[in-house]
Amino acid sequence: MLGRLVAILTFSRRTDSCTGPAQVIDGDTIIVAEQLVRLHGIDAPELDQPFWWRGQQLVGGMMALAALEAPTAGVKVRCKAVERDRHGRLVAKVLAPNGVDINRRLVSAGWALAYRRYSTDYIGAEDEARKAKRGMWRGSFVKPWVWRASQGTQAPARVVPISRSRW
Prior knowledge:
Layout (H helix, E strand, L loop, with lengths): L1 H15 E10 L2 E4 L2 E5 L2 E2 L6 E4 L2 E4 H13 L3 E10 L4 E6 L6 H7 L4 E2 L8 H10 L11 H8 L7 E3 L6
Parallel strand pairs: 3-8
Antiparallel strand pairs: 1-2, 1-7, 2-3, 4-9, 5-6, 7-8, 7-10
């Protein structure tokens, strides 16, 4: 009985959070401890999504990817689960070793937007970035969810709170 309880608790802990080096996939997705993690409450441009600055078209998604690589390179991040999506991916707040909320940092830097459809956590950070003209706010861009719709690509899957999931 005790062995079974330990196994259940270990499994729960493993799926509710994870820690380790991050492999950046795009501006709002990483792999940590062999788990695909979508950053909670933010939406970054897709890898091939354009951004216009000073009359030039740049690849906003690659700039968002670089902005996520900067605070995660060579360190172990901690992912605090918020929920899982319908595909079983962990949706989490990602913290740097010093406790800095990396999701917030990306929005504050202007390389991701507050994803109001799923969270209000980062609206203030987005407002600050817009007012200060940081990141994409210095030029012009299409919001990632609008751009995906115009390209015929799907938005991230609907999420299911951890407490209601089977994981």
